[in-house]
Amino acid sequence: MDRVNNLIKYMSVLLLLGGLIAPAHAAPPSSFSKSKKILNTQVYNDQKISFYCGCAYQTAEITNRNGTLRNKEAVNHSSCDYEPRKSPKRAKYVEWEHVVPAHHLGHQLQCWQDGGRKACRKDPEFRVMVADLHNLVPVIGEVNGDRSNFRFGMIAGEPRRYGDCDFEVDFKQRVAEPAENVRGDIARRYFYMRDTYNIKLSKQQTKLLTAWSRLDPVSEWECERDRRIEAIQGHGNSYVKVGCVELAE
User: How many domains does the chain have?
Assistant: First the structure.
């Protein structure tokens, strides 16, 4: 019931921000796999830049082990001077990362207590959360794997592990530090997921994300991304919309 009330409040905010009524045909994707296809073809189709490292990528046809062909998003490492840390094979392609990790979304559900992410695959509530387009971004596979479900924070010394990519990971402390130009984007996605799905954030994390959102304002691409997702999913991110209004003034 709390999640339903939160969603009602969230939609009310959207209406107040400009009478934004979603098209009658708009509906959230029904699975993570469908969300990835939608993002690739309808949201990032003309903006093929990886989120954390700013690397260009493009669709490439590859052959599976069984001889069939499929498309994958191949990363152009020279476009951003990326250097694989440990997994050159995984670093070749883009993966779709949950900014708020699936572990954070699911660990408070009973299905997760019963058997982790695998046990939650058929849970309706979990499927909606992991398929939410607002929380998904294109990331180099190796970086996605290294970030895992670590929290975001600041890392002393900023040890670079991926060439010129400004993304640091402290594996011992389980912390990841993104570049300054995406910190606000991350914060606004966290706040959206918190409000929409009643996700818990600590006071310390909320304070950090609030500062990140202030120091890294909404960009034109973030506004456009939000508009595209709203047209598909049926609602936008109110934290982005507020910034878009300020950007237009």
Answer: 1
